[in-house]
Amino acid sequence: MILIHIHKYKVMDRLIALEILLKYKQEKSYLNLTINSYFQKYELSRSQKDFITRVVYGTVQNQIYLEYVLKPHLKTRVKSYEKMLLLMSLYQHLMMDAIPDYAIINEAVNLAKKKKGIRTSQFINAVLKQAFLTEPSLEELSKEERLSIETSHPLWMVKMLCKQYGYSTTQKICQANNEPPLKCARVNTLLTSQDELLKDELWQKGKLAKDALYYQGGNIAYTKEFQEGLVTIQDESSQLVAPYLSPKPGDYVLDMCAAPGSKTTHLAALMHNQGKIDAYDLYEHKIPLIQQQLTRLQVSIVDVKAYDSTKLIELYPPLTFDKILLDAPCSGLGVLARKPEIKYHESNAMDEIIQIQQKLLENAYPLLKNGGNIVYSTCTINKKENEKQIQAFIKRHPDMKVIKEQTILSFEYHSDGFYMCLLEKE
Ligand SMILES: C[S@@+](CC[C@H](N)C(=O)[O-])C[C@H]1O[C@@H](n2cnc3c(N)ncnc32)[C@H](O)[C@@H]1O
């Protein structure tokens, strides 16, 4: 653990924020994991952690807009270090009211001088002074281009969403994606009740899911309720998925894509911890994450293994399961408020994912008993991975029918965007 002296706070906070941003850029790492690894390395106060988190997330969340503002002030290509330092300084200038401009410029110049020398620091100083004085114009742009830049969503994504949902819904989605997400937990009904937890006013009743609670304090993972297994962290939209399958005590259930186990443990709670759940995830390293949840929440009916669920038909005879949950890997376009870095993934990554989703569905079908149910869900709002994927599936299998389906958009309940569909086999 590295200790930091008080007078170095400001420069140190920005240095850490910059290092996290550079690591994210160079290694394409997940922001939350990278931030956590830095918070474990350094001893930081709550306010330092809040500042670093805000600058890192804010810079990534608004990257397209910040680059647009910066562009007229850069005559040549700049290296990653300089570019990131400029973007994060610009973010503080445009979106963090409390910090005076001279302080932002001073800190940026100091960082540049230490790492790259006097010439770079002079360059940073000149570009920031110019950029802070000018107001960018979006007048000449089309409606879609303007939305893309104002809300920092790639143009291909804005166009795709406009085609699927229309402009005004897309605008609401993009704006909601830039708002801080609510802190939400699910009550573990195996150990306690919502009424019991609501006695503490830091917990408040959710709006959308039956067992949901919002938390008004800091990190839910540090609460006594979390550590005792009375609650688990899960967004409200995601909490609708397991009840969609209506699992009953005694059912034999397959959970095809289970890590980190939020829905597996929810299924078990709805089954009163009676019956059997076979849970799989492709990645060996994710299996302990599921096991930790099972232990903490005192769930004992789940058998977890690492396996490729596009080959599950090789493991079981046909017609094995009463119910199947396929919470499929997806483009993640419903969770951009939590994971803004997903916005910048290549658009063609979706084509590959659509093929995998299809293979997973093809493995679910023969393993389901006649009269049994499948819930297919994703945390994306891309219709090609949702409604269209299911339409193609039931065309291939006319004995499957859609009982109900639902899409939740992020602005409706200030929760994750989600799709879920309940299917039944004749
Ligand atoms: C949306 S996440 C599942 C979230 C989980 N159901 C929950 O509620 O905590 C999708 C998961 O699918 C897994 N996955 C991707 N491809 C897979 C495959 N071929 N077989 C099994 N799991 C896969 C990923 O590792 C990821 O953990």
TrEMBL record:
Sorted keywords for this record are: Cytoplasm, Methyltransferase, RNA-binding, rRNA processing, S-adenosyl-L-methionine, Transferase
Give the reaction(s) catalysed.
cytidine(967) in 16S rRNA + S-adenosyl-L-methionine = 5-methylcytidine(967) in 16S rRNA + S-adenosyl-L-homocysteine + H(+)
Query: One biological process GO term for this chain?
Result: regulation of DNA-templated transcription
Single annotated GO MF: RNA binding
Q: Which domain of life is it from?
A: Bacteria
Q: Which CDD domains match?
A: AdoMet_MTases
Where is this protein localized, as stated in its record?
A: Cytoplasm
Annotated active site: 379
| Sequence positions that bind S-adenosyl-L-methionine | 257-263, 281, 308, 327
Give its E.C. classification number: 2.1.1.176
GO terms for cellular component: cytoplasm
Q: Which InterPro entries does the record match to this protein?
A: MeTrfase_RsmB-F_NOP2_cat (IPR049560), MeTrfase_RsmB-F_NOP2_dom (IPR001678), NusB-like_sf (IPR035926), NusB_RsmB_TIM44 (IPR006027), RCMT (IPR023267), rRNA_ssu_MeTfrase_B (IPR004573), RsmB-like_ferredoxin (IPR054728), RsmB/NOL1/NOP2-like_CS (IPR018314)
All residue ranges annotated as the SAM-dependent MTase RsmB/NOP-type domain in the record: 157-426
Q: Which PANTHER family match?
A: NOP2 YEAST -RELATED NOL1/NOP2/FMU SUN DOMAIN-CONTAINING (PTHR22807), RIBOSOMAL RNA SMALL SUBUNIT METHYLTRANSFERASE B-RELATED (PTHR22807:SF53)
The entry's function note states: Specifically methylates the cytosine at position 967 (m5C967) of 16S rRNA.
Q: Which NCBIfam families match?
A: PRK14902.1 (NF011494), rsmB (TIGR00563)
Similarity section? Belongs to the class I-like SAM-binding methyltransferase superfamily. RsmB/NOP family.
Protein name, per record: 16S rRNA (cytosine(967)-C(5))-methyltransferase
**Natural source organism:** Longibaculum muris
